[in-house]
Design goal:
By secondary structure, this protein is of the alpha+beta class. It contains twelve helices and 15 strands. Strand 2 and strand 3 form a beta hairpin. 10% of the residues are buried. GO terms for molecular function: chromatin DNA binding; zinc ion binding.
């Protein structure tokens, strides 16, 4: 009976274990099907998976669910909705959309400095607003294109327009850019400039061969250009800059649009431009070169450029203020007087950024605020000198991809500074981090570069600009522009100055004090006879005089050692000590027996 009772207990435990095993297999089957679903949908839309296995803990059927009344749910949503709407209306983002108005002013269209056969005589611009949106729940994405401004006349190469003016002001508000997009979840937006340009041939027709019958009216040629100007990108952090529209002057290189036809001039006739004696022949001889898909610096000067300026028409907006008005605090019906923070006087500065590559300036930009152009970190201090030093320290510390050179120019009313920006050839990408938040990583549609390490809080104590060194012999900068490589001492790791570059670096380790130090250390050995000490001293001295890279050069090293030190070895009768040293090299496997016999034969023949 006892045996049967124990058998029943074992059978019961095995049944419980089998039941638990089946439950684990059943719940892990959900994970397998989940990963299969993710594998299929990952091909359509890329997203990140945050692992969470909390659903394995219990079954939904075993948990009692409380069903809420629909009226209670609607009542709760209405209570939550009203404060959210008020907070959105009072937020800085929506107030900026309502208040900020912009003036777009085209400075002009300028041909390339290398262009000598074509001259632009008319240019018109159409501006489109393109919003890219994404719905992560339904795995949908797309873009919305709207024609924003059309038929904007631009002066060409400094010539006045038809009404005698050089520039026209085109006004628009920032809220117009997001018209009819409230139902979309916008990821990023940009302005697409489409330029229709008419060029005229400036070649001398008298130099062309007489057998080519060319109509001189065919010297007119229509070209379409495009450029993109981003102005919005979704950021999960409210402190990050979402709108890229900043006041300033912009210069951009134009590339030929392959989507637009270049044979017809019908677009120009719609703008009341009269072309006398023009015949659009399909057999054209003058063909415009297509813009290459290259980002080489020399390609920059081959193509025309357009200059335009953005100005804020508001005298004072929330973008320009450093303090916010505090509303009066009401307590028990009595308005308490709350002290308001005095507005800071706006610091008038003028900073010019010049971007160089291969000792050639590619472009420049001007800013009237002490703000980092990459991460928009505000470096404004009490005066212009401290603000400039803060900006320079920030650029040198957190933007290691570039090298900066600056000059401060003091004027009567406005302080100015010129900053030259060049690529840092020694940059290895070590100061890089990932995305700023997990929410931002989910909104990506394609791989992006890592963000620079720039959102660290700036230390206000680092507010001193190092004076420029006037003595070129102790300067650490290179002699040749564009050559930013630094040289270091091999023993100490200290950066070499310009005056020490001509000194032979191979003589650093072949110093008299270093040989004396080696000799003294060998003399301190007590378990070695004087002959072995002398061989070790000669061998170390030979190693300091000659540089060898590996064990395969040991046979060459021993032969040169015998040739140079053989007379001294015979003079002090150190042949047996040398033989013992060479036998040790054979035991270590860096010298063969045949090479040992050959080396000893050289010594005996001397």
């Amino acid at each position: 009976m006892e045996y049967l009772r124990n058998g029943n207990c074992c059978q019961q435990k095995s049944d419980e274990l089998n039941y638990e095993y089946e439950e684990i297999i059943k719940r892990l089957g959900y994970i397998t099907s989940l990963y299969g679903y993710l594998k299929i949908n990952f091909k359509r839309s890329h997203f990140l998976l945050f692992r969470n296995l909390s659903y394995i803990q219990g079954d939904r059927n075993s948990v009692k669910r409380k069903f809420k009344n629909l009226d209670k749910i609607c009542e709760r949503l209405i209570k939550v909705r009203i404060p959210r709407v008020r907070s959105l209306c009072d937020s800085s983002q929506f107030s900026v959309l309502k208040e900020v108005n912009w003036n777009l002013i085209f400075v002009g269209f300028f041909d390339s400095s290398h262009e000598s056969q074509w001259e632009t005589i008319h240019a018109y611009a159409d501006i489109y607003v393109i919003h890219h949106w994404k719905n992560s729940r339904k795995f949908q994405s797309g873009k919305k294109t709207t024609k924003f401004l059309s038929n904007l006349l631009i002066n060409c190469n400094g010539r006045p327009l038809e009404d005698g003016k050089f520039q026209k002001i085109h006004e628009f508000s920032q809220s117009q850019l997001f018209h009819d997009t409230s139902h979309l979840r916008i990821v990023y937006s940009y302005l697409l400039f489409k330029l229709r340009v008419l060029e005229r041939r400036t070649v001398d027709y008298s130099k062309i061969e007489s057998n080519l019958q060319i109509n001189q009216n065919n010297g007119l040629y229509a070209v379409h250009y495009e450029l993109k100007f981003p102005f919005y990108k979704f950021r999960s952090n409210d402190n990050d800059l979402k709108f890229y529209l900043l006041p300033g002057e912009y210069e951009m290189r134009l590339e030929v649009s392959l989507d637009q036809p270049t044979e017809s001039l019908a677009d120009f006739t719609n703008n009341e431009m009269v072309i006398e004696n023009f015949s659009d022949s399909p057999e054209r001889i003058w063909v415009r070169e297509v813009s290459p898909s290259s980002s080489v610096a020399k390609e920059y000067d081959k193509w025309p450029r357009i200059l335009f300026r953005l100005e804020s028409s508001n005298s004072l907006t929330k973008l320009d203020t450093n303090s916010v008005d505090i509303k009066p605090y009401i307590s028990n019906g009595v308005i308490d007087k709350v002290s308001k923070k005095a507005r800071k006087a706006k610091l008038e500065v003028n900073i010019v950024y010049k971007f160089y590559h291969n000792n050639h300036m590619l472009q420049w930009s001007r800013s009237q605020s002490v703000k980092c152009p990459w991460c928009n970190f505000i470096c404004e201090k009490s005066n212009a000198k401290l603000s400039f030093s803060c900006l320079v320290k920030h650029l040198q510390t957190f933007h290691a991809r570039f090298t900066f050179k600056h000059w401060v120019i003091s004027e009567t009313n406005i302080s100015s500074m010129i900053i030259e920006v060049r690529l840092n050839e020694c940059y290895d990408g070590s100061i890089e981090i990932g995305l700023r938040s997990s929410m931002e990583s989910r909104s990506l549609e394609k791989p992006e570069r890592k963000l620079p390490f720039t959102h660290i809080v700036y230390c206000s104590q680092m507010c001193k600009i190092n004076p420029m060194v006037n003595n070129p012999s102790i300067d650490l900068r290179p002699l040749v522009w564009g050559h930013n490589r630094k040289y270091f001492y091999s023993t100490t790791g200290i950066v070499k100055c310009i005056g020490d570059l001509d000194v032979d670096s191979e003589a650093e380790d072949n110093l008299d004090w270093l040989q004396q130090m080696y000799f003294k250390r060998i003399e301190e050995f007590t378990d070695v006879n004087p002959g072995e000490k002398r061989i070790m001293q000669l061998w170390n001295s030979h190693l300091l005089d000659h540089k060898y890279n590996g064990d395969f050069m040991v046979p060459i090293l021993t032969k040169s050692f015998i040739i140079q030190k053989g007379a001294e070895i015979k003079e002090h009768n150190l042949r047996n000590n040398l033989l013992l040293h060479l036998v040790n090299l054979v035991e270590f496997g860096v010298l063969s027996q045949k090479q040992l016999i050959e080396v000893i034969g050289i010594l005996d023949q001397m």
